[in-house]
Amino acid sequence: MTCYDRRDLGLLLLRLGTGGVLAAHGAQKLFGWFGGGGIEGTGQWFESVGYKPGKASAMVAGLAEFGGGTLLALGLATPAAGAAAAGDMAGAATVHAPSGFFNTEGGYEYAASLGLAATGIAIAGPGRLSLDHALGHVLDRGWMVPAALGAAAAGTAVVVGMRNQRVRQAQREAEGGQDPLFEEPFDE
Questions:
Q1: CB atoms < 10 A from the CB of 182, how many?
Q2: Residue 71 and residue 143: Cα distance in Å, rounded?
Q3: Phi, psi of 169, deg, nearest 5
Q4: Residue 76 phi/psi, 5° resolution?
Q5: Strand, coil or helix: what is 108?
Q6: Cα(131)–Cα(140) distance, rounded to whole angstroms?
Q7: How far is Cα 176 from Cα 88, in angstroms, rounded to an integer?
Q8: Cα separation of 120 and 101, whole Å?
Q9: 149 CB-near residues (< 8 Å, 6+ apart)
């Protein structure tokens, strides 16, 4: 019988806690469980903060959280699961960043903490108390970590960049201004 060490137990607890919280948040978005808005309500909220189309954005975020969180808790496909959750939390942190750091003020600390925990698990691996270990790490190879995190970072950068453009455009329109790059030249 193999003796598990503190690292394995610590990773199990970290995976269960982080994965469980992420999966619960995903269930709110996908199914309306735990007081969530489901796809419809969450989609409307996503539209209101610049993620369009709202329903598709809600579905992707819900799947990243529910699927990524469940896989993290199980310790299965750990690099991909951690990367999906981290990318999703980076998108969430973007929405909350204007409110500062602390969650009590609506800030990004909670999303950042979950994202960093998911990233840390993806990098450290799931430990021996995991399905990845039981399956011989076929879905948890060393090369998969940078590939998954890189793909998630690239995808997140594109999605967040498009969202930020929409938010800036909406702010300019609300202020009655026009984009300075497209203003008519001034005639004297």
A1: 6
A2: 19
A3: -60, -45
A4: -125, 130
A5: coil
A6: 10
A7: 32
A8: 20
A9: 79, 82, 83, 86, 119, 122, 123
Measured distance CA(180)–CA(123) in Å, rounded: 43
Q: What is the pLDDT of residue 4?
A: 78
Q: What does the alpha-carbon distance between residue 143 and residue 53 come to, in Å, rounded to a whole number?
A: 33
pLDDT value at residue 11: 97
Task: Dump the DSSP string for 84-99.
Answer: HHHHHHHHHHHHHGGG
pLDDT at position 179, please?
53
Distance CA 43, CA 55 (A): 4
| Residue 75 near residue 131 (C-beta atoms within 8 A) | yes
Q: Is 49 helix (H, G, I), strand (E, B) or coil?
A: coil
* Element containing residue 122 per DSSP (H, E): helix 109-124
**How far separated are the first and last CA of the chain, in Å rounded?**
87
- Which residues, including other chains, have CB under 8 Å from residue 146's CB and lie 6 or more apart? none
Torsion angles phi and psi, residue 107, rounded to 5: -80, -175
3-state secondary structure of 65: helix
Q: Please identify which residue in the block is written with the tokens 């840390």.
A: 120
Tokens describing residue 131: 């399905």
Query: Which parts of the chain register pLDDT below 50?
Result: 1, 181-188
> Each residue of 19-29: pLDDT tens digit?
999 999 999 99
Give the contacts of 179 (CB within 8 A, at least 6 positions apart): 169, 172
Q: Which residue has the tokens 């984009």?
A: 179
State the Cα–Cα distance between residues 98 and 17, nearest whole angstrom. 27
